[in-house]
Amino acid sequence: MTSSKTLVFTKMQYKEKFLEIDGVIENSKFTYLHVSDLEQTSYVGNVYVAKVINIVPTIQGAFVKFREDEKAFLPLDPRDHFLYTKKVGNPDKLNQGDEILIQIIADPLKTKDAKATADISLQTDHVVLTTGNPKKGASKKLPYTERVRLKEFLEAYQEEPFGIILRTNCNGCDTDVLREEISELKSQYELLLTKGQHAVCYSHLYSETSHRISLLKHYSGISDEISVLTDQENIYQEVLDYIDGHKHYLDLKDRVTLYQDSPNLFKLYSVSECLDKLLQKRAWMKHGGYLVIEETEAMNVVDVNSGKDTRKKPKPDEILRINKEAADKLMEQMRLRELSGMILVDFINMSSEEHREELLSYMKGRCKEDFNKVRIVDYTKLGLVEITREKKFPSLKQLLT
């Protein structure tokens, strides 16, 4: 478990944009930041009845229309299991004109369409229900003994047509709680299917909880103690209402505060100054080194520089230390800048294979706190470290510039 964290929810004007800020403060600084434009609608997590308007085999995908004025790219896989609400043409494959249930997993950005999936996910605090893969299992991050216990518990659900994933925070969780949550998700799943069969095309059938509630659930599972601070009355009430409806969060209620002092929260935590720094290419490390972060259309490229934090001939152990500090800084910047997709990192060269593997192992441990799924892939042939981070929202730079 990690140290205590304060979840800060506020709204502010930054230059010409009106923003909503969901942040996490640890040791008096932001360690996570989600910024959204109040004048733009996010569709992430929403489930719609969508119409297939074009299938493009060369890119293994299709384009679907989920609103009168919005379409999305739908990657296709032979293992896909579609939930049809209207079927035309060949009954054994997806056809143009079919109407199916889809869930938005990434918002549209500039000239890019939204991205969708046919594998609908419904979530509670400890459980994820999936429609695409009927497999039942528990998070691989759980201790072995817990995974065995939970696998035995899931035997009772093997015949269900949907998949069940028990999340990392199920460690030590009472099976009665899990049983209740699975029952709740099953009811949501069945209601979704029923509504889908009777709904017209482009109907919006389901929305996930707000991002701030998702943040609350995530960090309550990985931190010894969290508190919530907001200067927005509607957000304050939203958090309290959620806690009242979920009894295992009741001990958090006394740590939710409506901030009414002066200055405003965004001034108290210098959010504008923080955003200014995050829009710069350089991110400075504690001992004088820095990262140069370049965002391109295809990927993010990061160069590690030792700066003043070096000697004329740094020893191998010192290079490893600098690279580990750079890895910490990179993980932080990924969360603050909302860097996602492919990330290539040029660390300071290490001749020791043992040190190279130690750095990879260190990074895999450090990325577990991330709100998004992060995968430390490996070294490329050119010696760069390849990372992938789940893309849900535009990067901070894309949003603000």
- Give the name of the CATH superfamily of the largest domain: Nucleic acid-binding proteins
Q: N-to-C terminal Cα separation, in Å?
A: 37 Å
Write down the overall mean pLDDT. Answer: 92
CATH topology of the largest domain: OB fold (Dihydrolipoamide Acetyltransferase, E2P)
Identify the CATH architecture of the largest domain. Answer: Beta Barrel
Summary of the model, kept short:
The chain has 401 residues and is α+β, with helices and mostly antiparallel strands. The protein has helices spanning 144-154, 175-198, 211-220, 233-244, 265-268, 271-278, 316-337, 353-366, 396-400, and strands spanning 5-14, 17-26, 29-37, 47-56, 61-67, 70-75, 84-86, 99-106, 114-117, 121-123, 127-130, 136-138, 163-166, 204-206, 226-230, 256-258, 282-284, 290-295, 300-305, 341-346, 374-379, 385-389.
Structural description of this entry:
It is a single chain. The protein folds into three domains: 5-37 and 211-270, Nucleotidyltransferase, domain 5 (2-Layer Sandwich), CATH 3.30.420; 45-207, Nucleic acid-binding proteins (OB fold (Dihydrolipoamide Acetyltransferase, E2P), Beta Barrel), CATH 2.40.50; 279-400. Helices cover 27% and strands 31% of the residues. It has helices at 144-154, 175-198, 211-220, 233-244, 265-268, 271-278, 316-337, 353-366, 396-400, and strands spanning 5-14, 17-26, 29-37, 47-56, 61-67, 70-75, 84-86, 99-106, 114-117, 121-123, 127-130, 136-138, 163-166, 204-206, 226-230, 256-258, 282-284, 290-295, 300-305, 341-346, 374-379, 385-389. The longest helix is centred in the middle third of the chain and has 24 residues, at 175-198. It is globular and about 70 Å long.
